[in-house]
Design brief:
Helices cover 41% and strands 16% of the residues. With 186 residues, it is an alpha+beta fold.
C-alpha cells in the first residue's frame, strides 16, 4: 500500500510533466489491485441551507457576482473561500501549493475571469459598505488579500472533486492523479 510516510509517498512521487503541470507518477511497479494512494480531503464544502441563505442575502445586499457561462458562480466561490478561511495555516499553505493558472496569462479564460470578477466585486463592497461586509458571513473572506482570493478560487476550480452531498472536496494528491475532467464511463 502506498501510504504517506514523513511527507513522501511510497511508490509514487509528484513530478512536473510539461505542458500539463504537476502529476503523480509511479516509481515502482504495482500489483493488480494494489492501493496506490489513500488521500483525505484538505477542504470540503457542504451545501447547508442556512449558510447558503446567508451567503445569498449577503451577495444580494453587496452586489457580489461571478458570471460564468450565463451562471452566477459566486455562491460556490464563497463556500470554497469560507472553507479555506476556516482551515488552519498548514492546510491553507497546502491548498496554496496546489496548481492554479496564472490569472494574467489566462485572463480571458471563463473561470479566471469569473474569479477576478468575484474578487473585484468583493473589494468594491469592502470599499463602499465596509460595515455591512464586516457584519456578514463573508467577513473572513473579505480579510484575504485580493490576489489570494483569486488563487484559492482557481485552486478549487482546477483541483476539486464533486461529493455526494452536493459539495466539493479538495485533495492534495487526488488532484494529481491522471484523469479526465469529463467522465469517460457514461
Amino acid at each position: 500500500m502506498a501510504m504517506e510516510t514523513a511527507g513522501l509517498l511510497n511508490g509514487v512521487k509528484r513530478q512536473y510533466v510539461a505542458p500539463y503541470g504537476n502529476a503523480l507518477v509511479t516509481t515502482r511497479p504495482f500489483a493488480a489491485g494494489e492501493v496506490v494512494v489513500v488521500d483525505t480531503p484538505l477542504l470540503e464544502t457542504v451545501e447547508d441551507d442556512a449558510v447558503l441563505d446567508s451567503i445569498c442575502d449577503t451577495h444580494k445586499q453587496l452586489n457580489i457576482r461571478a458570471d460564468l457561462d450565463d451562471k452566477d458562480a459566486s455562491l460556490d466561490f464563497s463556500l470554497q473561500l469560507l472553507s479555506f478561511c476556516a482551515a488552519d495555516a498548514d492546510v491553507q499553505e497546502r491548498v496554496l501549493a496546489l496548481y492554479s493558472p496564472d490569472p494574467q496569462q489566462f485572463s480571458t479564460e471563463p473561470y479566471v475571469a469569473a474569479a477576478q470578477q468575484y474578487a473585484t466585486r468583493l473589494a468594491a463592497a469592502a470599499a463602499e459598505q465596509p460595515e455591512v461586509l464586516a457584519d456578514s458571513c463573508l467577513a473572513p473572506v473579505a480579510a484575504l488579500p485580493r490576489n489570494m482570493l483569486t488563487r484559492v478560487i482557481l485552486a478549487w476550480v482546477c483541483n476539486s472533486y464533486a461529493t455526494c452531498n452536493n459539495g466539493g472536496a479538495l485533495y492534495e494528491y487526488g488532484s494529481l492523479v491522471n484523469h479526465c475532467c469529463e467522465g469517460n464511463t457514461r
